[in-house]
Input
Amino acid sequence: MTTDILTRDQMMMLFDELSDYLAGVREGARIIADRHQLPPDWLNDAVKVFGVDNDPDARTVYQTDYLTVTVPSPEYLLSMKIRSGRLARDADDVRVLSGILGLRTADEILNAVKPDDRRPPLSERERRLAEEVIRQTVEGES
Output
């Protein structure tokens, strides 16, 4: 395995390019939010922690020489939503994803949450909080 070491100038150039890229992504997200009446923070920067490279069922929906758009599977999205710590806010997403996956109870939904390389299994506290919200949003509809 070869490790390339970048000079300070090369790192600064890459940082500048990344900053420009992120500014473009944020501007695109703002335009989409305006067009679809979404909250300004609808695109969550924290999602990068969960990168779709950890999802073996992710699929590419668009690709050019310069851009690849990959979307995670419903199972992976559900795990992200459960682990987000924003279950009250993400309750509708959890309900929709659970329906897509045919999951009807809190136990089924929580058992679908898989640990990955970056996150351990849900703690008992996280599991209890998730169960409460899930029961209210998913099981409460039945």
In short: The two ends are 55 Å apart (CA to CA). The first strand starts at residue 59 and ends at 63.
